[in-house]
């Protein structure tokens, strides 16, 4: 397997035991293999997102951990939006990694033990506009040739559990073989 040499850091970690839009930042989170973030409303073997659970409650949970790049928050400031870690519902806010460019199956090694396999991109939903009016247009854009660009973070499943703290390092392990771009999960 190929290893990416870009440095990465955990900026903040968040969880919420209720299905609310934002998740409060906490001192640490515990990732549970095959489950997700201990104590988080989206933890489980099967899908826990309310809209997806209504469609197919037995579907596998490909969205156990939500990652968002802190660099996005900086990019939003000139457009008039202020966002801080956890406010867009992510569990792990990162710095130093181009999350949206990672291929399917990338493994993120967080801190001393935890490993998460990336399953796809999060597609921001209209609830974002309820949080800050017009913000969704900043997170889903279309370029001049009609290509849609999503900036709502990425999702993954926990392969190896462990505690994750702000300040922990992140090591990127790229998958072997052809790199498949992330789709929406």
UniProtKB/TrEMBL annotation:
It comes from the Bacteria. Pfam families: MOSC. InterPro entries: MoCF_Sase_C, MOSC_domain, Pyrv_Knase-like_insert_dom_sf. Signal peptide: none annotated. Residues 23-173 form the MOSC domain. One of its GO terms (molecular function) is molybdenum ion binding. PANTHER family: METAL-SULFUR CLUSTER BIOSYNTHESIS PROTEINS YUAD-RELATED, MOSC DOMAIN-CONTAINING PROTEIN. This is MOSC domain-containing protein.
